[in-house]
Amino acid sequence: MSRKGFPTSEDAMILPFPSPYPARVAGIGPRVDDARRAGASDLPGAAAAEPTLEVLYQEHARHVAEVAFRLMGNDRDLDDVVQETFLDVSAGLVDRDRSMPVSAWVLMLAVRRVRRLFAKRRRFRIFGFRWLETAKKVSDPRGQEPNLDLYEALSTLDEDLRIPFCLHRIEQLTLPETALACEVSLATVKRRIAEAEERLSRRLDP
Predict the structure, then answer these.
(1) Cα(166)–Cα(8) distance, integer angstroms
(2) CA-CA distance, 71 to 116, in Å (whole number)?
(3) What is the per-residue pLDDT across 57-104, written as a single tens digit (0 to 9) for each?
(4) What are phi and psi of 119, to 5 degrees?
């Protein structure tokens, strides 16, 4: 736990098993897999090689699912988010920005999909479809008692605050990685995380 009482490890909010997603490849993560690829590029003819969609799915689908699960607070729309993320990966694989690490790019696409889902949920609420918000699966991080209060508090935050907070404090991305995933400046992501922490502290420590 951090000094503010927030979980500082993704281990506290694990995607439930069984899961249809491949087990995470040893060494795959926000930084390690790209370092491994960089080393492989030193081999003759490897610099121009691009990972295939199948390889990217095998290496990153589980991580995308875990991150989306924690950002959303439940797995009700998880399959859709993962599928749509890798459709975006497929569509952008040829023209992607090669200066961005592969894992950071995949994570950015996943965050975009989660943001779109939050916007869709807002529209449903505006038009009175509140019953959809009650149609949650059993697999919900809030069902894990130690994290009950945190997830209740997170559910009150706008996604502009919730997403960077979760990525930095729960997924343990660095601030620059969080800013990249959220597609905002470093100063903006710092401000949003600080605001999220302040609001969560007021709610969790009245």
Answers:
(1) 9
(2) 12
(3) 999 999 999 999 889 887 888 999 999 999 999 999 989 999 999 999
(4) -65, -40
- Measured at the CA of 38, the angle between CA 35 and CA 42, to 5 degrees, comes to 145
Which pair of structure tokens corresponds to residue 51? 């990972």
Q: What is the largest CA-CA distance in the chain?
A: 60
182-192 confidence digits (pLDDT tens): 999 999 999 99
Rounded (10°) CA dihedral 47, 52, 58, 63: 70
Which candidate, 147, 196, 203, places its Cα nearest to that of 168? 196
Distance CA 60, CA 28 (A): 8
Give the distance from CA 129 to its chain's centroid. 26
Peptide bond connecting 7 to the previous residue in cis, omega within 30 degrees of 0: no
**Structure tokens that stand for 189 in this block:** 């992501």
C-alpha dihedral sign at 175, 170, 101, 158: negative
Task: Output DSSP code: residue 200.
Answer: H
* pTM for this predicted structure: 0.72
pLDDT at 134 over 50: no
